[in-house]
Amino acid sequence: MDFEPKIVGFLCNWCSYTGADLAGTSRIKYEPNVRVIRVMCSARVDPTFVLKAFEQGADGVLICGCHPGDCHYTEGNYKTMRRFPLLKRLLGDYGIEPERVRLEWVSASEGHRFAEIVNDMAAKIRAMGPCLARPALTEDPAQR
Amino acid sequence: MEERRIGVYVCNCGTNIAKMVDCEAVAREAEQLPGVVAARSYKYMCSNPGQEMIQQDIRDLKLDRVVVAACSPRMHELTFRGALQGAGLNPYFLEMANIREQCSWVHEDARAATSKAAALTRAAVKRVVFHEPLEKRYVDMCPATLVIGGGVAGITAALELAGADQPVYLVEREDHLGGNVARVDLTAPYLDSARDILAERIARVRENSNIRVLLESEVQQVTGFVGNFTATIRTGRDGEVATTEARIGSVIVCTGYQPFDAARVQSYGYGWFPNVVTSFDFERMLRSGRIVTDKGAPPRYVAIVHCIGSRSQEFHPYCSRVCCMTALKYAHEAKSALPEAYVYDLYIDMHAFGKGCEDFYRRSAEIKTIFLMYRKGSAPEIRQAGPKYDCEMLIRVNDQLSGEEVDIPADLVVLMVGMESREDAGKVARMVNISQDKDGWFIESHPKLDPVATTTDGVFIAGACQAPKDITDSVAQARAAAARILGKIARGRIEVDAVFAEVDEERCSGCRMCNELCPYVAIEYDETKKRSHVISALCKACGTCVASCPSGAIKARHFTDQQIFAQIEGVL
């Protein structure tokens, strides 16, 4: 079987996106499954972005922000951290396994860490197979 | 929706992108997308001909949106926004797809990389359709600057700004100015006195009425934004404490470094052998004019060991940059004070990279310094010499030059301790909102092209708080930071990003949830209208409120839901 998972990454501009850029400038290799969308802060990641990604056929969603205490906006990542369990519960209701969404802290100097997270996530979701929640998401009239 | 006219430009970046991504195929695929009227690939999009090509198309093809698939937007977004503006288009009608840092440089399968690059470009095209014209905002620039740290970098920056008649607050934790340089005797490679370098500058600081020096002081808090910060400075120790509130437009962080604690490397016996000293202990001897062992006698054998804590997997992997030349300086100073003494220099590699340094190395050999090269990872070992030796200690070293394991005599061992970031650098970083790298050094905006700015507008870094560096480089950075600030002051007002959040008062229910969430107190509640609204000058565009508004009434300009939804559709 040659299923290749599609992962959407929401990366904060200041730490994680810069960290992912550093992986590039350091020529650290990782799997091409992740496609990154830049947001200013992980706290900008509206739960509907994640739902939208799964509805559009993503097999996984990765949210990355600055490490706790290091947020460019002082405390945005704490808000993300608090919202995340609620998001996971919501996704569970649609039959999306918790392993398909990840919240990780990646600093501007952690190019290696970003690469490791992507590789690990790609491997785990590859083993799980495609996300089957798409019909549930597209049919739900409550979905905006 | 009206028909868009989008131009897509795929950069080869020489071979940086093109060797892994089929740029022509990416352009051909983009050409098929709705609204795209031209898609081209080119060698270097950021070059003048590249930018002119985009501008030509904007004029000839009447483009109203532009996508550049190239390097990271962190690298060239401003460049291409400038190109759009130059051709009369609103600069925010640009979107970049990062197909270098996050694609060609990190993948090894050309087919997968090309398909990812095409997806990122498609997402950018879908997103740019919804881009709105945004106007730049301007805020006033307060001409005063806060300089944190009164070492050589801080002193230099303060003098430079004050010399241009601008007010400076120079804050130093200790009760004197000078920082680590004040602990040093002579400097490499020209052997001029550190005291002379400092004394003249400190006197000038003292005489300059534009500089307010606050000793025994620490900055407690910095609030506000570029051009309009307020700093709270606490002066004095327990008992008498005074607080100063300073209105400032810029900050330069010059907090320097701390020396590595030699006691952490056990094989050298620092703290155990009384005559194993650190470079700073040795500087103290040099400054007092007496090089002696603990028994008060001049040493017959002096050994200098490089890379204590530096270039080591166990401690700090980086090179501390100044120690090699400082070690040679010790050889010169020891030889001149004790002409009969033998001076050994134990090094891994001799890093003589600066101007005049290689020459200094040659002169050090001429004065008969005995050089021994040890291997990285096999540190020399120091032990007590027995009564049959005429020295106090023996150093076992596997000399790479002769290939032999030898014991060298020593009465005094000088450990060249490396530089490390200050223990409390994290506190400073959080206070002024800048980042630290894995070793704790502050991160500059761009390692080559923007070395003294940070990701926080209005906050600059200079000297060894950014990475180990010598006096020359610290002074250069301090003057560079001052020049950056003077440039902003000269313009009187500063341009701030047009990106911020807006509340649609029609949709706002007045629940005030966003009021509490905003870290900048930028959202105000209007009691009469029963609606919230954003004070745009205070908003830093994080988008926290946008994601949490239950009515969907807040819009993040340039990061709207619609734009991000389009981008999600595009990548999948």
Fold blueprint:
The complex is a heterodimer of chains A (144) and B (572).
Chain A: E1 7-12, H1 16-25, E2 34-39, H2 47-55, E3 60-65, H3 76-93, E4 101-105, H4 111-128, H5 134-139
Parallel strand pairs in A: 1-2, 1-3, 3-4
Helix pairs in contact in A: 1-4
Chain B: E1 6-11, H1 23-31, E2 36-42, H2 48-60, E3 65-70, H3 73-86, E4 94-98, H4 100-104, H5 110-128, E5 137-140, E6 145-148, H6 152-163, E7 168-171, E8 186-187, E9 192-193, H7 194-207, E10 211-214, E11 217-225, E12 228-235, E13 242-248, E14 250-253, E15 257-259, E16 276-278, H8 279-288, E17 301-308, H9 323-337, E18 342-347, H10 357-366, E19 370-373, E20 381-384, E21 393-399, E22 404-410, E23 412-417, E24 419-421, H11 425-432, E25 459-461, H12 471-491, E26 493-496, E27 501-503, H13 513-517, E28 523-526, E29 531-534, H14 544-548, E30 554-556, H15 561-571
Parallel strand pairs in B: 1-2, 1-3, 3-4, 6-7, 6-14, 7-10, 14-25, 16-23, 17-18, 17-23, 18-19
Antiparallel strand pairs in B: 5-26, 8-9, 11-12, 12-13, 15-24, 20-21, 21-22, 27-30, 28-29
Helix pairs in contact in B: 1-5, 2-3, 5-15, 6-7, 6-12, 9-10
Percent of residues in beta strands of chain A? 15-25%
* Rg on CA atoms of chain B, Å: 30 Å
CATH fold topology of the largest domain in chain B: FAD/NAD(P)-binding domain
Report how far apart the termini of chain B are. 23 Å
* Biggest sheet details of chain B: 5 strands, parallel
Please outline the major beta sheet of chain A.
4 strands, parallel
Shape of chain B: globular
The CATH H-level homologous superfamily of the largest domain in chain B? FAD/NAD(P)-binding domain
The helix fraction of chain A, in percent, is 40-55%
Q: How many domains comprise the coordinates of chain A?
A: 1
Order of helices and strands of chain A: EHEHEHEHH
CATH level-1 class of chain A: Alpha Beta
Task: Give the N-to-C terminal Cα separation of chain A.
Answer: 35 Å
How many extended strands of chain A? 4
Q: Biggest interface and which pair forms it?
A: A-B, 51 and 52 residues
